[in-house]
Amino acid sequence: MTALYDVAAIGNAIVDVIAQCDDAFLDAQGLVKGSMALIDTTRAASLYDAMAAGIEASGGSAGNTVAGVASFGGKAAFIGKVADDQLGRVFTHDMRAIGGTFTTPPLAEGPATAQCLINVTPDAQRTMSTYLGACVELTAADVDPAIIEAAQYAYLEGYLFDPLEARRAFAKAAALSHGAGRKIAITLSDSFVVDRHREALLGFVETQCDIVFANASEVCALFQTDDFDAAVKALASRVEIAAVTRSEKGSVVAQGDSVQEISAFPVEKVVDTTGAGDQYAAGFLYGLSQGRSLADCGKLGSLAAAEVIAHYGPRPQVKLRELAAQNGL
C-alpha cells in the first residue's frame, strides 16, 4: 500500500510559553536548570504570573517533529489530545496551518489543553515546567488505523509513556504499523522518563521499536552506565537504527556493528535549545522516508537542529527544504 504520510507522530499536544530569565529567577522559583518537571494547574498559574513576557507557540515534542517534517516538504500527521478550549483551538490551527493532518477529537470535558512554561537562561539552557492537562486523556481509541497504517514511520514521544492508557495507544500503533509493513520509531525524550520507566521502556524498545532517538544522557540512563560507546552499542544491538545526539559534538548513528559520527552544523549563536532533538528527529525521519543514506539522514537532522537553536521557539522559522538545498542536501 502506498504511504500517504512520511511520518505519523503520537505525542503530547502542548502550547509552549517561552520567556527569558536569569539563574536567580530559577533559584527563586525552585527550578532545576535544564530540567523538565511536571506541575499541576495551580503551580502553572503562579509560575506563569511570575515569568517575564514571552512568546506563545504550539509545541510538544512530537508536534515539533511533525512541523519539521512538513518544513522539509514531507507529509506528516499528528495524533494527540487537546481540550475544546482556546489553547486547543490554537494548537489545532497551528498544526493544520503547517500542513500537518490533525483529526484527533478534542476533549469536551475535563482538564484544559496542556502548556509548557519554558524559561531560557542567557546560556540558552531551557528549564521546562509542564502542565499536561488534556494530554493524559489520550487513549488507544484515538489512534486512527487509517493514519498509522498509511505512514511509512510512526513516531512515538517518550514523554507520553507515563500514562497507562498512552502505553496502550503505543502498543496499538506498533501493531498497526508493523501489520502494514511499516516502521516504529520512538524518542526517549528525557532521562527522567527513562529513570521512571526503565524496565518497561526497554522492553517496549526491544520488542516493538525499529528506530530509537536519544541523547547521550538518555541512552546512558537506559543502560545504567557512564560509558557512552557501550550504551550506544547496547541500543544498536536491540533495534534496527539508533540515532543518539551529543549537542555540540553532533550525533552518532548506529546500525548493527556500523557506527557513523555526524558533525553538528555550525551555529553563529545558540539562542534557545528548545526543540533541538525534535528537529533532529524530523530531519532524520524525513531522510529515511526519502530513501536517503543514514549519513545524509544524520546531516539533515543536524541541519534542522542547528536552525531551531538559533532562535526562540521549538519549530523552524525558515523552510528546511530550502535550507537543505542551500547546503547541498
UniProtKB/TrEMBL annotation:
Stated family: Belongs to the carbohydrate kinase PfkB family.
Matching PANTHER family: CARBOHYDRATE KINASE PFKB DOMAIN-CONTAINING PROTEIN, SUGAR KINASE
Gene3D superfamilies (UniProt xref): 3.30.1110.10, 3.40.1190.20
Molecular functions (GO terms): kinase activity
Name of this chain's protein: Adenosine kinase
Lineage of origin: Bacteria, Pseudomonadati, Pseudomonadota, Alphaproteobacteria, Caulobacterales
Residues in Carbohydrate kinase PfkB domain copies: 58-315
This protein's record includes keyword Transferase: yes
Keyword line: Kinase, Transferase
